[in-house]
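Running this now, will post back.
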Amino acid sequence: MAAADTAASAPLLVVENLRKSFGTHEVLKGVSLSVKPSQVVGLLGRSGSGKSTLLRCLNMLEVPTAGRILLEGEEIGFETVSGGRRRPLPAAQLARQRAAMSMVFQHFNLWPHRTVLGNVVEGPIQVLGMARDEAEARGLDLLERVGLRDKAGSYPIRLSGGQQQRVAIARALAMRPKIMLFDEPTSALDPELVGEVLQVMLDLAKSGTTMVVVTHEMSFARNACDEVVLLEGGDIVERGTPDFVMSRSENPRARQFFAHHRQEKTGGPA
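Update: finished.
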């Protein structure tokens, strides 16, 4: 969980009136939120609610139709030029910004032709300009952190899905990001492998890593998140502490969502 002084600190990430359309279909309808240093924010909602699109917009994997994203006061993806016009940033500047917001995907996205350590060090060497010796030393420390130092010389095909996702987390951490973005990091895993990835994420949360997590894992949201945001149809319908949103909210859409989720989990009436 976040440090006790989080409430008094200025936001690290600010999202202002974010909109995203694909053709005539508006997926995000003016979402605004903020994330403070060391805070863990969970994005919850049904499939198609807009949560993954929101996450992908944060580091410009999807370019928003309207609105702004600010990291430490710097706009992500765009710059303002003469006459108040906004234009996309050059690729090199966008790459620098993306490095500050490392993303962990559903399907690992590891390079199959590189070893575990090779996957972890490639970004720091190519994007951050880190010397290989330094990158490898840090990479081994990060693999130790996720419990996979002994797999440094292995190739991804030799790893379980849970191990591959833990390598992906180490790879993201290697970029020394200001914030970590997780897009349903356990949804592609067999049930028996989910726990090992969630434990790494819990450890990150306890260590003060700033995180925005799209997840269907309600126990993780309740135990690790400082705030949860419930999206439906591209709008935020409820937000607050996990206890409030998941157990005490009077919002009928929130109550319906969590009742349905409990029913799915138990196989019986909510």
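The chain has two domains: 2-100+181-267, 110-176. More later if anyone needs it.
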